[in-house]
């Protein structure tokens, strides 16, 4: 709560790097680079390139090749894949009656500032920690990016549920209208009790037919069965003082959602994510193949 999120900045860097260095993309975030200063972008790039010995001890190559390896293998798969999944799901939701888009843990997400035509009628709410939300607004201003009239900010502490009352009292939010709620990159950093509290609170303020989109770590994430990338990500999050706290089986998620009136509509594991969202990129980039992150699943659920 006292400082902007380091993991959110690194996610923005990875989306920016991917957009700048590929003609065929998994997800094209055309504004992510504008939210980072040159100093930040270059410093993150340098740190990641210098960290190749941690990520891939056997790597041999130039610094730029090392950076590409770290970004493509460690940094980008999660933010790119889940953003592509979320925006595809949101488009489907809008075409079937959704009028509000609620983004929990918005970080430096740029959807609200590059809205496609199909999103113009939405009311968009970004829900995040005050420090990150305020920092983002300053970055938008510095970049000359105009905040659209349909974009609103809700300050939140996810462990205390302080956002709920503010959302309900906001004059642009209508609990009777169908909402789509994205909760990307959040489940990792909350206890199971706090994450369930978020789902419960969302269910209590959104209409029937509303949807939630989220990614979550599977039950092997913080065990010896986890993939090597997951083990390194867990270590990095701890160093950034953003420790990962919980993981879930499919049954855990199904039961949690059902308890709060949501049924799973779509569920993807790493292989399915790679096949659906990484295939075109991999076909165009045979020397820089990417795959969905180990031990990470995506879920779309609808309130009954």
From TrEMBL:
GO MF, one annotated term: methyltransferase activity
Matching Pfam families: LCM (PF04072)
Alphabetical list of InterPro entries matching this protein: Ppm1/Ppm2/Tcmp, SAM-dependent_MTases_sf, SAM_mthyl_Trfase_ML2640-like
Sorted UniProt keywords: Methyltransferase, S-adenosyl-L-methionine, Transferase
GO biological process, one term: methylation
Domain of life: Bacteria
EC identifiers of the protein: 2.1.1.-
Similarity remark: Belongs to the UPF0677 family.
Job of this protein: Exhibits S-adenosyl-L-methionine-dependent methyltransferase activity.
Protein name as catalogued: S-adenosyl-L-methionine-dependent methyltransferase
Taxonomic source organism: Flavonifractor plautii 1_3_50AFAA
